[in-house]
Amino acid sequence: MLVDKSEKIHTDSRTPKYMQVVNLILDDLDRGKLKIGDRIPSINETSFDFLLSRDTVEKAYNELRDRGIITSVRGKGFYVNSTNMANKVKVLLIFNKLSSYKKIIYYSIVDTLGNQATVDLQIHHYNRTIFENLLERNLGLYNYYVLAPHFFDENNHPETCYDLIQQIPKDKLLIMDRDVKDHENEFPGVYQDFARDILEALESGITHLRKYTRLILVFPKGDMYPVEIIDGFKRFCFFHNFNNLILDGIDDEQLYEGDSFIVLAETDLANIVKKSREQSLQLGKDIGLISYNETPLKEILAEGITTISTDFVEMGTTIANQILGVEDKIPLKSPFKMIIRKSL
């Protein structure tokens, strides 16, 4: 039997009361206090013990019955039917977008968790209001929340949404892909340090870059890429005395011999490859080209595109292992490197 049940229902919690009842019963299953075949209190008994309405308790029991965890026997009551669903970790992934790279992370998390967890996915589209609504609907329903905290306000300025992130219990939250500004060591997970990453990656390939007279970063305007990339690029060029330029697109630009481009968007990558052919400029000799984020296609495109990238598979694997307790739940910087190919 549960003890002090009424004290375990928090009236000021954002988690619905019926879900608090569900979670308490699941906790008892996890701890072995309830086993298959055990009878649980009736709706009236639980209503009395928790000081809740019958409707609230009935909703909780229906949720448990829908999951296959309890079953009702006419005239006898409710009994534990299965512990399999209760033992599975429930994970909600909250991504900023569903790009090809986020898909790699998603499948890496799912594959590593295997049958030990059920995984749901929601997208906040960089938007505070959407994120707030997602929290409103999902807080208290999952064992872990994996958040990619890329947010921009209505003026396309970066924001942290720290006040909203705080609503997720710290022991249930993992940060993915970027840290929370000014709270870098507060949340476990795996993050990229965008300014430091591009600086160190370019330094690792500096002998190749010295072939070129100018470095050009193509940073698309309004596409909500991490602005720290610009900071890291500027620092590299300043420290190593590179003539440089930042463009927001390449569509109307002429390519000039001696330039080396760093591109974030796949459309800009394709445009430069196309323009180089049209202007008879050889990649890796007349002009240089570096693309953000490694993909199998870039290994073969134009005889090999040089990339700077984190390991998205490893990022997903580490997140999953932190959930499973295989790795410590601490903030970890994701490795980032340059892969030299013919385009540089």
Question: What this model shows, in words?
Answer:
- The chain is of the alpha/beta class and 344 residues long.
- Among the domains are: 5-85, Winged helix-like DNA-binding domain superfamily/Winged helix DNA-binding domain (Arc Repressor Mutant, subunit A, Orthogonal Bundle); 195-310, Response regulator (Rossmann fold).
- It is built from 13 helices and 17 strands.
- The chain has helices at 17-30, 43-50, 54-66, 84-87, 100-113, 128-138, 162-165, 194-204, 206-209, 228-239, 266-278, 296-300, 312-324; strands at 39-40, 70-73, 77-80, 89-95, 117-123, 144-147, 151-152, 158-159, 173-178, 189-192, 214-218, 244-247, 259-263, 288-292, 306-310, 331-333, 336-339.
- The protein has a six-stranded parallel beta sheet with strand order 5-4-6-9-10-16, sandwiched between helices. The protein has a six-stranded mixed beta sheet with strand order 12-11-13-14-15-17, with helices on both faces.
- β14 (288-292), α12 and β15 form a beta-alpha-beta unit.
- α2 (43-50) packs across α3 (54-66) and α5 runs parallel beside α13.
- The radius of gyration is 26 Å and the shape is elongated.
- 34% of the residues are buried.
